[in-house]
UniProtKB/TrEMBL annotation:
<keyword id="KW-0808">Transferase</keyword>
<feature type="transmembrane region" description="Helical">
    <location>
        <begin position="41"/>
        <end position="74"/>
    </location>
</feature>
<dbReference type="GO" id="GO:0005524">
    <property type="term" value="F:ATP binding"/>
</dbReference>
<keyword id="KW-1133">Transmembrane helix</keyword>
<dbReference type="GO" id="GO:0000155">
    <property type="term" value="F:phosphorelay sensor kinase activity"/>
</dbReference>
<protein>
    <recommendedName>
        <fullName>histidine kinase</fullName>
        <ecNumber>2.7.13.3</ecNumber>
    </recommendedName>
</protein>
<dbReference type="InterPro" id="IPR050482">
    <property type="entry name" value="Sensor_HK_TwoCompSys"/>
</dbReference>
<feature type="domain" description="Putative sensor">
    <location>
        <begin position="32"/>
        <end position="208"/>
    </location>
</feature>
<keyword id="KW-0812">Transmembrane</keyword>
<feature type="transmembrane region" description="Helical">
    <location>
        <begin position="175"/>
        <end position="193"/>
    </location>
</feature>
<dbReference type="GO" id="GO:0016020">
    <property type="term" value="C:membrane"/>
</dbReference>
<feature type="domain" description="Signal transduction histidine kinase subgroup 3 dimerisation and phosphoacceptor">
    <location>
        <begin position="230"/>
        <end position="295"/>
    </location>
</feature>
<dbReference type="GO" id="GO:0046983">
    <property type="term" value="F:protein dimerization activity"/>
</dbReference>
<dbReference type="Pfam" id="PF13796">
    <property type="entry name" value="Sensor"/>
</dbReference>
<keyword id="KW-0547">Nucleotide-binding</keyword>
<dbReference type="Pfam" id="PF07730">
    <property type="entry name" value="HisKA_3"/>
</dbReference>
<dbReference type="InterPro" id="IPR025828">
    <property type="entry name" value="Put_sensor_dom"/>
</dbReference>
Amino acid sequence: MRTVALKDRVPLGPLGPLGVLVDPMTWRAAPYLLVSGALGLMWYFVLAITISVSLALTVVWVGVPLAIATVLLWRGGARLERRLQRLAFGVRLADPYRPRPQRGLGAHVQWLLKDPATWRDLGYLLMLLPLGAVEAVVSFAMWMGTGGLLLAPILYPMEQGAGGSGYFVESWSEAWIAGFFGVLLLVLSAYLARGMAWLHGTLATVLLGGGEEERLRASRARGVDAAEAERRRIERDLHDGAQQRLLSVAVDLGRAQSKFDSDPETVRELIAQAHAGTKAAIAELRNLARGIHPAILSDRGLDAALSGLAARAPIRVDVSVELDERPPPAVESIAYFIVAESLANMAKHSAATEASVTVIRDRRGVVVDVWDNGIGGAVIVPGGGLAGLADRAATIDGVLVLHSPMGGPTIVRAELPCEW
């Protein structure tokens, strides 16, 4: 799924000794740091071979497609690294590439080669070798030393029972002292792992996440696309709904006018039809206005508006809104439509029996969670409703995340900043 990050950040804030040991992020970062050197070495050899061969063969036609394949290869590697950054360090990085052209081989080649993100991807993968080598060597030395010291009180009696001497301690007192220093080194190693993770994540954010200009450009482009899609939807709804009804009203009134003197009974029927058509057109316009921006949202805020959505849902939906103050109107509107679309999809596809909507305010902005116990399997497809919601969130540099494994449950989470 393609999203725009709320904030490209490394969530590795300062923690105490106990906190750094129990924080899952520490132990998610440690394995990556150990293998980052191997990853860097692999990418160095792969790129060195493919780039050299493709450049050497550019004198003949076969070198050109090979060079394009090489560019696609390292962009794919950078995409993989963005996913690894999120798993290892919690750094959420959106793909910063410019929009893909609709057609034309030449346009696609230019799109690949003229995008600055393509060359930042290459720079990151080449930087991964020296950076990963340092991380791997330091991590290996620290964790091996930590393991050796911590195991000293356990290995010493085992070696004594086998008739040998300790591998680096000669008495129980030395073994327990080694164990004590092992605990200290464990805390130091955890802090060191977090420090290297912070540095690595920061460099990855700069190179893989794109500059602020690219992020803003992508956000603006998606915002323009979302606004254009909304304009087309309103135009289509007007044409297919209220416009047709008003046209029918005009026809009925025209017929009534022509029969006003000759057939009063038919005139009454035609006026009655026109009256009913007018009321139906008003209802259509009200529904359309509600789809643009519901009045209850402006008047009473998110809590009342979301409660109204829940009341119209076919199953029980629990709503919890915990906001100390009303967020900006744009945030309220996006949150409302995310919940509306999620509940509509749930009713159509999920076979859920219960659902919940939670809205809270944290230090970054407003977080919206929509959960249901349905069958899962939801995906974001281009042009679909959820993709449109991701584009809405992108207009304010927000992020939409979908978690919907087969069998359920489904969770749609939106993180919407209140400042942009």
